[in-house]
């Protein structure tokens, strides 16, 4: 019974991590990343430049974090590493670009930050390219003791 319970726990955890990777990546890509690519010229005129580097650098950084990295995260390829630019861009947006926002005003950004920090901490799970490349079986978990 303990083995079945452990297997179910691991499977549900892996399903949850897969869901977070796919859903979070899709939302970030669709809502933030792809519009920046298809409206690049327009975005150059309105993107914030919190560090005075000119508009091209923050826009290209955002495109990398919101288009390229979500593709890697969704596939589970170099997942933890791919989460770092996403987390960085979200932190800059929430802390440096929009410090006046309340949590309610910035809830979408904070929620995305929560999702990608969680993925970075937990890893991609068993259903990922990372797990396939490493070739190690997922560690078995001991069931909780009553």
Automatic annotation (TrEMBL):
The chain crosses the membrane at residues 12-35, 55-74, 81-101, 107-127. Keywords: Cell membrane, Membrane, Transmembrane, Transmembrane helix. The keyword Cell membrane applies. It comes from the Bacteria. It is found in: Cell membrane. Its main location: membrane. It is a multi-pass membrane protein. Belongs to the DoxX family. This is DoxX family protein. It comes from Undibacterium arcticum.
